Amino acid sequence: GQQVMQIPQYQHVQEGEDFTTYCNSSTTLSNIQWYKQRPGGHPVFLIQLVKSGEVKKQKRLTFQFGEAKKNSSLHITATQTTDVGTYFCAGRSGGSNYKLTFGKGTLLTVNP
Amino acid sequence: DAGITQSPRHKVTETGTPVTLRCHQTENHRYMYWYRQDPGHGLRLIHYSYGVKDTDKGEVSDGYSVSRSKTEDFLLTLESATSSQTSVYFCAISSGAYGYTFGSGTRLTVV
To answer: Quick check: A66 contacting B, CB < 8 Å?
Structure first.
């Protein structure tokens, strides 16, 4: 079945440093979504990417979808303590309109 | 998030007992999902529903059953709870167009 791999598993940064998490799928995706889960909380939808090569920005967050639609990345510029949490990517393949396959997530901790 | 609630929020139960978790939505979304979250495993799909009485298995469905008799409610039943089912359970809803909205979760401990 479809697999979505996400690296790194953990990342610790100093406040102000940049952060990137990467997501790779074993199959071509129709779209990819990103979620953030604060410690003790539930996943919250951030964004969806659909087009090959698509780049979207949300303030300090930049999301990219690869040309082959099999990989994606989330980059945070100048991290803040409010960025702490686990970031998940989730992919949907063309044949599974109802289901997302989640990566295992990257836990980001930020040292003030 | 507004529009989706899970109950109970916490539960401790004994091995071998049946347990039912409830997910209720007020968004009239077609799709509903049950995930479990465990350290090192991320979010794993247990069962999902694409309409009333339309359900299907996810990747970790053994030992679980679901029912959806009306649009707003999706029930997850652990038929005979085991310690390996100690986990945090999340329900999610989707219209199919965009992202999922997750409930606040149920922390289940099987002793």
So the answer is: no
